[in-house]
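hey so i finally got around to running the thing on that chain from the lab meeting. sorry it took forever, my laptop kept dying and i had to restart like 3 times. anyway pasting the input first so we r on the same page abt which one it is
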Amino acid sequence: MSQAVSLPGRLACLLLLLVVTVRPEGLDVVNPEEVGLASDRLARIDAVMEEHVAKRQIAGAVTLVARRGAIAHFKAYGMRDVEAKRPMRTDTLFRIASMTKPVTSVAVMMLYEEGRFLLSDPVSLYLPEFAQMKVLPPEGSAETEPQPARGPITIRHLLTHTSGLTYHWNKRLGMAYKEAGVPHGLVEEEGTLREKMKILARLPLVHHPGERYEYGLSTDVLGALVEAVSGMTLEEFFRKRIFEPLGMEDTQFFVPDDQVQRLAVVYQREQDGPIRRAPDGPIPGDVGLVYSATYPYQSPKRYFSGGAGLVSTAEDYARFAQMLLNGGEFDGIRLLSPKTVELMTTNHVGPVEANLGFGLGFGIIRDERDLKELASIGRYGWGGFFYTDFFIDPQEELIGVFMTQLHPSGNLRLHEKFRVLATQAIVE
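ok and heres what got predicted. didnt touch it at all, straight out
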């Protein structure tokens, strides 16, 4: 005969059940049809991801699709560590590299909203080392020595990558960056952000500030700006002002020792070839850039790269993306004004990467000229060095997050297919 459970006992069981099953507030999981998506169409994502795993083009992946503020698709495929037989999970950690840039841009705009600076301000007002910049002479010029810049680097130039700073793959300045010890955020580093940005400021620019778009270390300088203006390290500002308010519990610069097994392994793939595990330590890149798969846990953990340093999960990044889609607010916490998000997601430069425009931290589909695949005008997002990607489609209230760990990718276009697969699932 069964025994009756007392009222306090039933309440205790109910509370335990809630603790086990309730997800963090702000992104509920719903049936796709509740948010105008078709389940059978979303299942096409499963088929494509599983095919790429079976063909050994990726080890595994996590994909997330949210619409109208709720998650309609959230799946893990394959393995996060093939050799150790560890399956991919939805809470797997990924090196998100340049998907750090939008986070740094949001941090800058939060300080902008507090009246700390204007976007037209020279960054040298806050980082004096950038006061007297020089510029390489034009290619083919009779001049051989760098010339004084025609104007200062402004905060707007840094946000739009028109500062004249570049990356280590640049044929004219890459070697100078390497020899001077300027980091890019994808390898173990001894120094601090401010120390290294002072070294960067001694080197010439590849073009005059404001002259054109050149993807590079501008966002790392913005990270140093955040530190100088806020009085916090970039890690502390991110954690206290962005990650904790948004409930991004797994987003960080460096992975604690007891969490390293959650980090997906980086694999490499040449054109049309199968994946192979990336070695530990420095790896010569395919564009003259030395990188490392071990930097999130084997470094001194002092260098906080605003352009490339973060580790995150698909769900954490979806929370960040939902804040932007909501006009700067998530789960009752407001980080930015809707007008600021509007400014950030308006084209300021273009065309640039893949013939897109560029706002204050994101690539943007400007108009019909940029609609090369299924998408909406105004869609924005960015990707990362280790083959991660996200997009936000304001017209359709749609968010997509794609995470794997692969470099080089062998010209794989799986992230682009994911964008199409997520968008074609819209039926109302």
